[in-house]
Amino acid sequence: MPPKMASASQAPPPRASSALPLSKAVARLEVMLKLTTAILALAAGVYTYLGVRELLNGSPATVFFAAVIYSVAVSVGIYAFWVFMMQFMPHVTDRKGRGLMFGCMLLGSLMIVAMSSWLNASALAGAAAIQQHLAITVEHYTRDLDTANSNAIAAQGLLPDIQLASSRFAKLAEAERTGSLTGTAGSGTVVQLLTQLSGQLDSLGQEVQASGKRVSALYEQGGKSLAKMRELISERGPIAARSDAFAAESLALMGVIANLQQTSVAAAVKRAAASLSSGFIAPAAGGRNSDLADRQIAVVGKVESSIAVQAASLAAAADKILATPRVEPARFQTLSSAEAVLRYAGDFIPSWAGAISIDLMPAVLVLILCVVHAAIRREGLPAVNASDMTASQMVAALRMAREVEDARRSVPSKTRTAAERAAGPTVASDENVTTLSSARHTK
Questions:
Q1: 122 against 183, higher pLDDT
Q2: By C-alpha distance, which of 67, 61, 226, 77 is closest to 146?
Q3: What is the secondary structure of 280-313 as a DSSP string?
Q4: The pTM is what?
Q5: Distance from CA of residue 239 to its chain's centroid?
């Protein structure tokens, strides 16, 4: 066997074309594609209805019909868009047309997300988003309440200094009664001055203590409001009703925070300290002789210096408390489900992914059709078997074959006729010529 024949016999058999099975599969799945697209469009319409219903205002009938009309329009638009893409995009083969089709698909997908997907996400995660909004608001209110309480009870830190100063002046008054300061026992000018200062500081201390009790009561009231808010967050039931109750509790809590900031006695302590220092009037010495009077004047001067130092210390401490920024709690803002989903979108990525997938899932089917039709065009369809043809197709094929055969037969006959006409004169001119075989036979 020649080498060329041997190599030809060893060549692998040609690969069977997959174009025909692919074309049959596309034909079989056409109804399935449309049914799948319709179901996805219906699901998008249902979730769009649930989402848009929370955004509409009016009577229940108006809200119902408006939401139904919008959701039906969304379903029809989504279905029509994807059916158009499935019918046209796989058959656009040139690069420019294919690029325009991809641009149309991208634009349509963005419009679908804008009119449907965010409402789907609202229906899927709206209640959870509102609950998260309430939880974050509770955290903010808890922080504001603690800050306001800290600012209010900061003045309680001045109470030990006030009580210590009051006790000190009271002890000096008792000591003066035995003559420890002026050297003369009795209840004269110095004793009266020290007793008066001790009483003023003691009254200021009692006011600070009373303020502490009011602060504790207000803080306890705020804690109850926060506990009620947390219960509303964890309860089951319509989120709208819980949100309204939460708003009422937030108003009560804001009032508590405002009262806490007004309860602070730091300003009163500063005013009392300034009054002790600037309003001090040295009493006239009441001694029976000039020597006792001089000693009383000297003691009163020392008391005045001590009062100035104590007043400056209290005023400085009160200034630090007053310099603390006031708490400005934010007013609670009620959000709809759609607004909450948009504000906290980063926390509900799975819900957003599911909502967008419902609307854009047909895009994957469109791309699959593009790939399959490209493979069919690349490999080409083989000849169709008679068993795969319908009766009408068979009749049309036979008629076409008959016409082709008639045309084929008519071409040779016309060719022979033309040839005979061209050879006619030559035959006529040879009629008087006798062939050699004929001549021999005649002889």
A1: 122
A2: 226
A3: --PPPP--SSHHHHHHHHHHHHHHHHHHHHHHHH
A4: 0.63
A5: 18
